[in-house]
Amino acid sequence: MGKYVGRHSSIDEAEQSPSPKRRSFLRSKWTWVVTTLIAVASLTATVTFGSLNFSKDPPQAGNVFNAPVTFFNGPQAPITKTTTEPNQPVSGSLYQNGPCPDNPRKAGWGPARDILPRDKFSPLPSFNSDNFPEVIGDERGFFGIRDVTYGEQSEPWRYSMGMEPGHTYRLRIFIHNSGDQDTVAKGTRLIVGLPTCTGRRIATSAIISASNANPREVWGGVNLFSDRVFNIAYLNGSALYCNNYFKCSDGGEGGVRLSEDFLTSRGALLGYDALNGEFRGNYDFSAFFSFRIKPQFAPER
User: Fold this and answer.
1) Which of 49-63, 73-87, 138-152, 175-189 has the least mean pLDDT?
2) Cα 133 from chain centroid?
3) H-type helices in the chain, by residue range?
4) Which of the four pLDDT bands, split at 50, 70 and 90, describes residue 134?
């Protein structure tokens, strides 16, 4: 928008009143030329900068194209080597019941892929390949956690979290097709691998997939730890899906309550106005999915 105004300003500054010594027909001709130039420049500015705003503008107040606003919005911690990095997803079925491995696989994001330029779309359906700090930042790390024991917005979103007895945690997943709004991902599903093993370090992954996406699936990871042995309990009925159609209020009302299929290998279908697997590109069709967990600790002796 700043460039748009600036271009108009430069034209206005260049537009001068004709000299009184000029003949009237020259004045008329000059006025016609300037008027034409203003119209062409205005049209060019509208087409050029308007198309950028239409395509990849991050959510802003008053912008037509907005990512959904929910009570669990907010930027994710930056991706660094010490937080999360390209890695294979951790399956919930990998560690079922019993003790967790002494050195469990660290959850990270993947597959390795480049971030799209700010003003470019993916030509094919492609999930979470942008980096807008106004939304969550680097979308490759789209899976995060925060402590909500003392309120939904009391803590930042992180890739790893120390577990404390009696605390409740919300895990959040951001889903965004980085194609334009005419690019529709088919058969879009979400799977969360939430291990049921017991240990001091537990890794969990979220996988977004679609039959025609490139890459076909992307994943993000969250790592949980404690100096005491624990396991993770999913809080029944806490799974919540929010977008600009299924709106969620600040108090957590609204949205769509998903079944627990997202915790199985089948996964849960996603969508916009229906959970039919069709996921359109651009930010105003993006979505947040979240659920809550509580750590369970063995009694101290």
Assistant:
1) 49-63
2) 10
3) 2-14, 24-56
4) confident
- Condensed to tens digits (0 to 9), the pLDDT of residues 238-268 reads 999 999 999 887 666 788 888 889 999 999 9
- 284 and 200 in a common domain: yes
Q: Are residues 33 and 103 in the same domain?
A: no
Structure tokens at 224: 């949980």
**What does the buried/exposed string (b/e) look like for 75-84 if buried means 16 or more CB atoms within 10 Å of the residue's CB?**
ebbebeeebb
- pTM reported for the whole predicted model: 0.74
User: Which carries the bigger pLDDT value, residue 78 or residue 270?
Assistant: 270
In a domain, 100, yes or no: yes
Q: Is 48 in the same domain as 97? A: no
Which residues span the domain enclosing 40?
Answer: 2-56
Q: Are residues 157 and 272 in the same domain?
A: yes
DSSP 107-170: P-BBS--PPPPTT--BSS--BS--EETTTTEETTS-EEEEE-TT-TTSS-BBSEEE--TT--EE
In a domain, 76, yes or no: no
Q: Domain tally for the chain?
A: 2
Name the band, by pLDDT with cuts 50, 70 and 90, for residue 20: very low
Three-state DSSP at 202 gives strand
49 and 1 Cβ atoms separated by less than 8 Å: yes
- Sequence-distant (6+) residues with CB within 8 A of 105 are 87, 88, 90, 94, 203
